[in-house]
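Holo model, magnesium ion. Inputs:
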Amino acid sequence: MAKELDTSIQFLSGVGPKRAVLLQRELGIETLSDLIHLYPFRYIDRSGVVPIAQVAPDLAFVQLQATVISRALLGPGGAVVSQETNPIHWGAVKRLSVIVEDASGRMEMVFFKGIKWNYQRLVPGSTFLFFGKPQEFGGRLNIVHPEVDVPQDGAMAQGALTGVYPSTEKLKTGGITGKVMCKLQSAALALCLPEIQETLPEYVLRDRGLVSLQYAIKNIHFPKDSYALQKASYRLKFEELFFLQLSLLKQKFVRSRGERGLLMPKVGADFHACYNALPYTLTGAQQRVIKEIRADLMSGHQMNRLLQGDVGSGKTMVAVLSCLMAIGNGFQTCIMAPTEVLAQQHYANIQKYLKPTSVQCALLTGSTTQKERRAIHAALEDGSLGILVGTHALLEDNVVFRNLGLAVIDEQHRFGVEQRSKLWGKGPEAGGALPQETVATRSFVNGGTASEAQRWDERSEVSGGRGSARQGRIAPHVLVMTATPIPRTLAMTLYGDLDVSVIDEMPPGRKPVQTMCIGQNRRAAMYKFMRDEIARGRQVFVVFPLIFESEKMDLQNLEQGYEEIVKAFPLPDYKVAIVHGQQSNEEKNFNMAAFVAGRANILVSTTVIEVGVDVPNASVMVIESAQRFGLSQLHQLRGRVGRGAEKSYCILVKDVKTSKEAQQRLDLMCQTEDGFEIAEQDMKMRGPGDLEGTQQSGLPISLNIASLARDGALLSDARAYANQILDADPTLSEPRNAPLLRELRKDKYEIKDYSKIS
Ligand code: ADP
Ligand code: MG
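Output:
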């Protein structure tokens, strides 16, 4: 079948073994197919020539047709080395200046490289096409390093739009210039184009007004005109986003229709007891999310829901009420936090919420004693323990639930993929691997409390492969909570097969955090400000960056900073605690606890405090070397303050060496507190691949032409369309959808199964 497409790039005329290695190393291109899927990232209009008199410095690129008048070889400082005389001392030449002329005027072309070669071919009296970006220099216009062509030489100068391909220094020195790349593409297309198979069904092309794949690929490289280019690029972007969403949504369909889930039809007395005793009313967003979760628990399918909510939006309450719903149906629950301090804090809060209920709650962490552990294990086994709060310790093999119905994972980005998947195995036994037919009708008996209610719904159209992989255990419902706001387009992609709930409303009474950015010269003033706040009974966070947790230098940085703070805030008036990654857990917890309890006025730390810690009395967040942090990290840190009744402040201290981009980030922080806006901006500035929290999980597939930052509308559109198709034909088994199924079977759509890990 696809013979030419699979041909090694080495055998394309103009490549050969050496260049093949180069293309492979620099661009990952191995086959002709790889080559033709390397698209230009911009285009240059070379359709006409501009008269020299009309050239202006604000024109992006221009093409001139002009005749060489004179050439000058210039040395350092512009001294003429040689003009039309021999012999030339090439070593002394720094620059070649060529004056060219057309009917309208004269202009200078300048070369700092390739001097000898250009000198030799740019003979006075001969005419060339010069192409490049004009710039103003010393009050006159010139073009540095123009591309030089003989008029009517080759297709390049005549094609209306010329593609510019990604390149590297090594490619250029290896002879693969922009021009050569165009020639290679042209040669490859001549061989491969007829082999390219349409990936979209006929009816989709018609529905969406899309050009064919062959037309698109041809015109993305060599556009006939700008209209053709637009058509080509739209088609390729749509296709890319469409298949990505189709594969994600297909997984979601399979799960939501097929994964047997624990049925929890009741709300239960404990839920109501807790709810009625709440000291506040839930926000509209909290209520909406709880309703969404309730609907999941009642559906008979396994819930896989991501709960996104900015820091302080009240996710804990949602988690507790969800747990109580599960408990109301006779199940046990667990809440897993990434650190011991956070687990402790959850535990303390949750116990408060549980007072009006009869639910038992326990804390399990690395520092839980053997004796306490035995009690917990016993209570888990006899079913008397309703909520187990803890750290990774929850995942240990000897932690056995009688009937785990719901697992809540807080701050997911701190957990590794494998750890999360372990939770799946902690669901209740299904009584061994059963054939699908018996599973469908068999009711699940556990502890005698809610057996009737628990039935697995099973629909015949879905294969049961996933269920049996779990050795007869039924996965608990899973609620993942994250405080990292993710841009909408990214969420649609990263969590495209999960259900996503968003708490987009803050509890009333939160005071805005006043944010300012200062230089080192205002440190003394900042210390004074900190003293004033401390005098008013407030506490202060001081955070230092840590780039690599193991780097000694960063630690030194932190320790120096700590010493400086201690000097400025001496005992006995002030107490300063320090927390960092190199401390033992004991030490860390001790110092952290001192600050949480108010025994220390200042907490100096690395970003270990980034997530979740709640110290309402802290009113100031100082971030040192703030230019070294990413936006979402800055936002997370700032979210640590502004949680109490007092007015709060965030002070970003920047170093002298602060890049323009870093300054942009700091400015944005001063302008807005909206986590989603910050996330959107962050993605625009850095691209989706670099967003914090996403490197680890990664995009399901890499995008070649579409961009999550720029093509948001097209993404939503493609997703909606994919949804529509799956609604009509969930398994894509209709003949007209055969091309879709064929495309989805390709390796690149073998995306990670997020449902199993989060
Ligand atoms: P996060 O989403 O960051 O985990 P928390 O659950 O820790 O937020 O809630 C932050 C604070 O807001 C807590 O002190 C909590 O008691 C309070 N809170 C939560 N929901 C509400 C509400 N509806 N009204 C008022 N305060 C609330
Ligand atoms: Mg929280």
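DSSP finds 26 helices and 23 strands in the chain. Residues 238 and 714 are 7 Å apart (CA to CA).
Archived with the compound record.
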